[in-house]
Description:
It is built from 19 helices and 8 strands. The protein is an alpha+beta fold and 468 residues long. The protein folds into 2 domains: 2-277 and 459-465, Orthogonal Bundle (2-methylcitrate dehydratase PrpD), CATH 1.10.4100; 282-409, CATH 3.30.1330.120. A 4-stranded mixed beta sheet has the order 6-5-7-8. The chain has a two-stranded antiparallel sheet with strand order 1-2. A hairpin with a 4-residue loop joins strand 7 (393-399) and strand 8 (404-409). Helix 5 (121-131) runs parallel beside helix 9, helix 14 (337-347) crosses helix 16 and helix 18 packs across helix 19 (439-450). The longest helix has 22 residues, at 211-232. The radius of gyration is 22 Å and the shape is globular. The N and C termini lie far apart (51 Å).
Amino acid sequence: xxxxxxxxxxxxxxxxxxxxxxxxxxxxxxxxxAEAVHAAKLxxxxxxxxxxxxxxxxxxxxxxxLAAQMPYPNGATVIGTRMKTAPDLAAFINASTARxxxxxxxxxxxxxxxxxxxxxxxxxxxxxxYARSSGRDFLTGIVLAYxxxxxxxxxxxxxxxxxxxxxxxxxxxxxxxxxxxxxEQLSHCVSMAVVPNVTLRQVRTDPLxxxxxxxxxxxxxxxxxxxxxxxxxxxGPHLPFEGKxxxxxxxxxxxxxxxxxxxxxxxxxxxxxxxKLRPSSGEAQSTILAAEKVSPLRNLKDVKKxxxxxxxxxxxxxxxxxxxxxxxxxEAADHSVxxxxxxxxxxxxxxxxxxxxxxxxxxxxxxxxxKIEVTENEEFTRAYERRPVEHRTRITVxxxxxxxxxxxxxxxxxxxxxxxxxxxxxxKFRGLTEDMLGAKRANTIxxxxxxxxxxxxxxxxxxxxxxx
Length: 468
């Protein structure tokens, strides 16, 4: 497709760019199912709860300290504070903070590139606050960002690049819509999200650093910034996906077509993500749930051997390599099956406190980790690779006294893939926020978020979350 631009240059628009732009322009609140609207509210509640719970994490205060040097009174709020900064910087800080505790939602679809689509929630909120959008417009933006993120994830098959690339693109389209971009501006916005912003999978490879969480914030920031640039009149590169040096051939690893997107009878993809109730990688959720069934162990010195049977992807990513038995940071520990099993067997479960320095370097925990063997169970691998997805894990504890303890999860009502109730998400939110906000304020926030469709201006929400 070719469109004339105001500079006189004929703008070339590729088919994927056109499909995304048209879909974003056409989507409206009244075209979204009640089920998808409710799903957007749930994920907003879940993400904001994670943000408050992680507020004092090291990368979070590093980012906030940077924002304090860049005030912007008419911008967007650094949630938890009275500070306002540029919308893209607010997106960076809030998304990084929400992502830090490994408690936001997760996506697994056979054949997809997986990911954490809730990374879009706070960047979209920053754009909505900046634009003084209504709750309905914000919810529409969330459903749109999820739709883009997950449809791209389903067709993207290059493991050298990170899933936060999908966050950048989904955020850009939602932010652009909230900022009132024209069709041509939205097309430029897509291009400026896709071409300059490519995150490498190295973010999540080898020993992990605090950038693991911050990558989500960087992607969200880039998406909001692309929308702001487009609104200011900036033009993006031509043919961002299908050009000879474009995203398809050099990032996605080949040409692809997007599936039909949500609406007009097609289910919205936001319904296909799953919530975490424990702070860890998605692939390790079933490990914790299985370990809980035989914990806490009363006599750790009597433990002879612990065998953890997993599906292949979980074993390779969270239970292979010497660094998994010697995590040296919070980021490494919440992605380590040996660590998560050991701390669960000692304490009964995993909480945010499971990663403080006292626990991380506990000699008794470190000794217990060395007794853990992680193996693939091929039956569990097959269960993970089909639909409906099953996250199955079996943990067997053998003791010197001859006792054999077995904990198993998956394939039933406690499977990580099972939807969570509103009550469970509320309980999780309260557990993460009440110590800092108090029960009364937590209830007030929940009441407001459950009725987001009635909010005239989302800028009234951040003051409810003020911590200091």
